[in-house]
Structures are given as C-alpha cells and as structure tokens.
Amino acid sequence: MHQTDRDVVIQAIKENLWPHYAFQSEIREKGPKVLVKGDGAILWDIEGREYIDGHSILWVVNVGHGRKEIVQAMAQQGEKISYASLFGGYSNEPAGLLAKKLAEITPGDLWVSFLVSGGSEAVEAAIKIARQYQMLMGFPQRFKIIARKESYHGATLGALSCTGLRVYRTSFEPLLPGFVHVPPPYCYRCEFQLEYPSCNIQCVKAIEEAILWEGPKTVAAVIAEPVMSAAGALVPPPEYFPRLREICDHYGVLLIIDEVLNAFGRTGKMFAIERYGIVPDIMTLAKALSGGYAPIGAAVVRKEIFEAFQDYMMMHGITYGGHPLSCVAALKNIEIMERENLPQRGEEMGRELGKLLEPLKKHKMVGDIRGIGLHYALEYVLDKNTKARIPGDQRVAARVEELCWKKGLYLCRASVDKTYIAPPLVVTNDQLQRIVEILDQSISEVEREIFS
C-alpha cells in the first residue's frame, strides 16, 4: 500500500471509526492494528508485518484465511441476485439450501432454521421463539430465561440480559426483566467450594433449584454454552448436560444451547453439544458458520417447535437474515469443513495444543490452563495456592496480548485475567509451537513486572 493511502486509512480509523471493546485513547496514542491480508493461519498488517492468527480473529475463521472458493461462490451469487428478503413469505435459493444443510448436520431432530445476521441476533431470536412457543402451548406466564454467571451470549439488549459477565452489563443497567443467573460449571473457582466428582454436579442442581424458586410455570427456557468461552474455555463435567436435559424435560422448560463460539469444529466436533449426547430444543449458530467470510447467524429449532407455529406468525424478522451472499458463503464453508474433515483436525491439533500449553504452568501467575479441541484459555492469578485474582487495573491479559502482537502473534479479546488460544483448524504443528513460544515469552515479561 502506498504510504499516502496507509496514512489516510490510519487517520480515518483514529478519527472516524468507533472501536468495539477498546479504549479510543490507546488507539490514538499507539495507532490501530490494521489487518490487510490473511492466508491459512497467517495474517499481515498494514505495515507488512506477519502474524500467526492465534484466535481465528474472534473464534470465527475456523477454515482459515484466503479461501478463494468461498469468495468465488459469493461473487457468482452476486451476479445472479445479491439480496432477497425472507419477509412476508419471500425467500431465496441459498437460504433454503442452507436451512436444508443445517437440518442434515445438526444433532437429532433440529430441523428448521431462523436465519439472522450474527450471534447476538441468533440469541435474540432464540429467546423470542422460546417465549412465543410457550405462549402458543398455553403457558403465557412462562417468560423467564435462566442463564449462568460468567456466560457470554451477546451484546444486544436481550442477549446481554442473558450474559452473566458483570463487566459487560453494568453500563447498560437496568437490563430486561425475567433473566435469572445461576453458578456456572467453573470447577477451578467452584461457587459452592466443592470438588468434582464428590460435588455431585451441584452447579446443575442449582438450575433446578432456580426453576423451582422462580416457579416452573414462569420459566420459558434455560440457555447455556456447551463450553463457556469468555469465561475461559470452561468445559463442564460429562454428566452436566445430560442432567440438564432431564431437568428441562421434567419441568417443560426449553433448552437453548448457544453454539455461537463452539460450533464447526472448534471443540473437535462439528457441534460441541455432540460430546454430551443430547439434543437441545434450540441451537444458536454464527461466527464460524460462514468462517468469517460474511455475517450470518441462525437459531435452529426442533421440528415440533416449528410445527406449533404453523397457524401463527413468528413476530420477528431481520432485514439481512438469510442474505443470499452470506448463505452461499456458509454453504461453501461447511462443504470445506466436511471435505477436509476439519472437526477431526480440530480434535487432533487440540490434543497437541494441550500438550504444548501444559509446561506454561511453570509461571507464577498461570493458575489454570483448560480447554478442549482448539479452544483453550489460561487464567492468571496473584497466588496459585489461594487463587487470588489479579486486580483488574493491572490489565494483565491485555499486556500479554500486546507483547504477543509485537512478537508476531495475534491474540484478540483478552479479558482482565484470561488469555484465549483458538487458532484456525488449519493451523500447523510448527505454528502451534510458535504460538506457545511467543505466549511463554510474553507471560515471562509481564510476570517479571508483577512479581519484581
């Protein structure tokens, strides 16, 4: 890029572009990190510097960057028709074919897709479907949604009301009524001060207790991520979801499984809930549904739920839901995943990543390393014995991320005390080793500052 063009872009970002989850002052002082090219698990910035993508940008680009066949499929569709709405009985060919494909590959009798533009919208749709379904079934008082502390379900108002991370909620309170939060399966920091397996999965019992406390006739659904991502790759015990399915069935409560960050090979399965052998009533999808090549999301529901709406209009719609170009991108993305068996690759490379990360426990501030597939996280602490949290104003994870960037590793979405590692499923062994080497070096530097 010509120097003048580069300067114009950087100045425009500093002055005219509102960043997401970032401090404007830091961007103006240090300059924005502008990505311009990607190939496989490698990225290049506007300065021509090369990075390993250690986070699939945002748990999104599972098939890797630079997949020309996805771009070509979108271009071919654009030459036919670039936009057609799903409103009022109208539709388009790619939307129908994508819905059919999702019915084929999602677990059990998940059958019908409500297509939207992204993950937050998928959760919004799932909440509305659950509430209207309960009303149609003769339970108009069933409107409450039970979610979990430490969960992340999105940034729009309904999805944010589900979200159980305080830092995202406080600026926008009061949020929507009818959302109840219970302890998560956070074994490293068990809210009940119990240990698995003698705990008898008290965290799932807490959901039943919340249903009973709120009144079963007032609860529409429970929403849960199979692996809690923003909380730091929290993988629940194997009994957790089978018991949750039993609880929901017993009380007539729908089970919404939020796979927005988990699906399409990230955990070593096409869908993370497959590890637990249950079928949700509604599954939300986005992010890697198109591999990041176009914005799209979906709420996929069981056939019996859809049947209840046959004589009733679903009072919801999204202008860009089922966008033809996005649907074509998603179809080609899924084709690649199946052809190259990328979920299995995610499983295999995930085992390698786990082995490589294990030695990082040598660091004083690395309290826990956890994950599954290519979905891992490190949690930092002041003291390993007490698990004392590092004060938020020290921004430890952000400092680690910044050092990684300078050394050639892209790790986005650092929280206060957690680093997430989730490279594309096409990552190589050499790239995994380099990811961990850079992370090791960066943690060492931050650690010296904290404990010196």
Explain how this protein is built.
There is one protein chain. This protein is of the alpha/beta class and 452 residues long. The protein folds into two domains: 33-63 and 341-451, Aspartate Aminotransferase, domain 1; 69-339, Type I PLP-dependent aspartate aminotransferase-like (Major domain) (Aspartate Aminotransferase, domain 2). Helices cover 39% and strands 16% of the residues. The protein has 15 helices and 15 strands. It has helices at 3-16, 24-30, 56-59, 68-80, 93-105, 119-136, 157-162, 166-169, 202-214, 240-251, 303-307, 324-339, 342-357, 396-407, 429-451; strands at 35-39, 42-45, 50-53, 110-116, 144-148, 179-182, 219-224, 254-258, 282-285, 297-302, 366-372, 375-383, 388-389, 409-410, 418-421. Strands 4-10-9-8-7-5-6 form a seven-stranded mixed β-sheet, sandwiched between helices. Strand 2 and strand 3 form a beta hairpin. Helix 4 (68-80) runs antiparallel to helix 12 (324-339), helix 13 (342-357) packs parallel to helix 15 and helix 14 (396-407) packs across helix 15. It is globular and about 60 Å long. The mean pLDDT is 96.
